[in-house]
Task: inverse folding
């Protein structure tokens, strides 16, 4: 989507897991948990263009490099879901209840924003919509919106660097970003985008966050 995109040198297991659930195609979500628990590093290379000197992207333990954004990911969602408290219920406790109900459906179902009155989730498996609506209905009122996608800005450093979090939120300000402190594996900034606007939004955000970063991202 962005001709000037650059290779990411390294990712932590948590960052890679977050990317995988946010739309990245490699590595597969299911391979990262076992590798991370065993401490087995993964190196991503291009199998279509083998190069003995290629460095690829190394996935392993979190590095001590300065705080930086690692990557932007997007997943084309056919459904965005809103979970609201039942009549007379309070928002307090809704998050934990909805996250518990949503857990069996991850990574297809992705919580991405907690607002004043509701929790928003993104679903990229339309064939499971009825099943998921039924599961969430046990703990919340559920609404569905179509025609949008979710963009995610990912870095484990968002947990420890207020300056980095502020930079990302400022760069994405026009898109109403949300800092999700309880992501799949690490904090992440997410926001919804209309499908037809996605290429322009990704290019704009990439330019704001990575301009002048050189040939690769640490």
Result:
């Amino acid at each position: 989507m962005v001709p000037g995109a650059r290779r990411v040198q390294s990712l932590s297991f948590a960052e890679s897991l977050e990317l995988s659930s946010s739309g990245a195609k490699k590595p597969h979500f299911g391979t990262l948990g076992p590798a991370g628990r065993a401490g087995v590093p993964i190196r991503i290379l291009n199998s279509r263009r083998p190069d003995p000197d290629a460095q690829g992207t190394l996935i392993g333990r979190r590095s001590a490099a300065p705080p930086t954004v690692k990557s932007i990911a997007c997943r084309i969602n056919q459904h965005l879901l809103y979970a609201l408290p039942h009549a007379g219920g309070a928002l307090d406790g809704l998050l934990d209840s909805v996250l518990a109900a949503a857990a069996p459906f991850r990574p297809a179902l992705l919580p991405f924003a907690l607002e004043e009155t509701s929790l928003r989730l993104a679903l990229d498996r339309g064939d499971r919509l009825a099943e998921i609506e039924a599961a969430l209905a046990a703990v919340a009122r559920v609404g569905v919106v179509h025609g949008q996608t979710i963009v995610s800005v990912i870095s484990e450093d968002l947990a420890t660097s207020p300056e980095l979090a502020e930079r990302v939120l400022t760069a994405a300000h026009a898109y109403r970003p949300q800092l999700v402190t309880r992501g799949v594996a690490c904090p992440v900034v997410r926001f919804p985008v209309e499908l037809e606007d996605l290429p322009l939004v990704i290019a704009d955000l990439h330019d704001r966050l990575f301009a002048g970063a050189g040939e690769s991202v640490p």
